[in-house]
């Protein structure tokens, strides 16, 4: 049984992080996680932008997002704290909103650094938590120790994120807020709703206004982003399962396999079967 199943949290280093981050094809994390970079760089593609992380940066990954690794340097040194969502739900809603906001910032920008001194403290906390998780010594209250150490880590992160992002979150422009809500709605409804009209109605604004705002903030139109999200979902289903193309098209809400194949080929210039074959050979 993995530490994640047993204790609700698991820690990966640069030596085994690629068990959870696929190096050669798009992937969806099974659980949310914090990824910290001590040295070197890693570049990940998420949604519509590349995110480059270097020393003293961290990012928040989310199971609703599909990532693709672009590159990683030879001197890459990292820790990934992967946790079950329910393990963090007891913490304040404010913390969760800050995490969501940080995640939104990632979609827009490059990674944001935080002070080396703070990274040092967090790094030590994470390593100590890992030491307890990995210890084979019989510990009577190991589960409770893990829960408390994880709470300490969460409060450290809440402090760092609050200090850095609270002002920005309060200063979020109306345009940024529209995009923030659009991306949040899209993550929830993209399997059943693919029209710009649906997402505009959710915010009681016109499709023209939503498209204009999304384009000005992200550089891509709302319909392009919707197609990107659906394509990423399709890629993961095709390369991480043996489901027939007809079943994949059904999961993605297409009327039939032909409609899905037409959509896929339009955006990637290869058919779903040809795409899947690339990873089999």
From TrEMBL:
<dbReference type="InterPro" id="IPR020449">
    <property type="entry name" value="Tscrpt_reg_AraC-type_HTH"/>
</dbReference>
<protein>
    <submittedName>
        <fullName>AraC-type DNA-binding protein</fullName>
    </submittedName>
</protein>
<dbReference type="InterPro" id="IPR018060">
    <property type="entry name" value="HTH_AraC"/>
</dbReference>
<keyword id="KW-0804">Transcription</keyword>
<dbReference type="Pfam" id="PF12833">
    <property type="entry name" value="HTH_18"/>
</dbReference>
<keyword id="KW-0238">DNA-binding</keyword>
<dbReference type="InterPro" id="IPR009057">
    <property type="entry name" value="Homeodomain-like_sf"/>
</dbReference>
<keyword id="KW-0805">Transcription regulation</keyword>
<feature type="domain" description="HTH araC/xylS-type">
    <location>
        <begin position="176"/>
        <end position="278"/>
    </location>
</feature>
<dbReference type="GO" id="GO:0043565">
    <property type="term" value="F:sequence-specific DNA binding"/>
</dbReference>
<dbReference type="GO" id="GO:0003700">
    <property type="term" value="F:DNA-binding transcription factor activity"/>
</dbReference>
